[in-house]
Amino acid sequence: MNKVKKAKNIKILLTDVDGVLxxxxxxxxxxxxxxxxxxxxxxxxxxxxxxNEIPTIIVTKEKxxxxxxxxxxxxxxxxxxxxQNKEEVLEEVCKKxxxxxxxxxxxxxxxxxxxxxxxxxxxxxxxxxxxxxxxIVDYVCxxxxxxxxxxxxxxxxxxxxS
Length: 162
Known about the structure:
Elements: E1 12-15, E2 27-28, E3 34-35, H1 40-51, E4 56-59, H2 65-73, E5 78-80, H3 88-97, E6 104-107, H4 114-119, E7 122-125, H5 131-136, E8 139-140, H6 149-160
């Protein structure tokens, strides 16, 4: 089966933050405030998914005010913060939305994403994800994290589900 065809019938997109929605950089002001850069096209991807009735859910090990504010602004369906074992979120999401794991997509980029990437129906990574992730996902984006990789996956899901 063509791996991109696995993007058909996806009902929810889960996403990591650092290295996917951001470039993974840690920016600090002189006062020690941490900042993150989110790409505008990724935000539009969230909006387009919502319009196509595919909610976006964030799953991150971090807990920051910036992510919370961005999630609120983008009307993210749900934000799971401080998650160490990301694959544990999958069962809860499936129960809540009355779907199977093969109807869930996830985009991640690093070692702590591998467990969840292996359990979903469609898995993706940014172009600059670690090799271990790129080897196991269904789709490796042409874009890097924080540079439109999320939007690329959003467009792919919309195209395959319309």
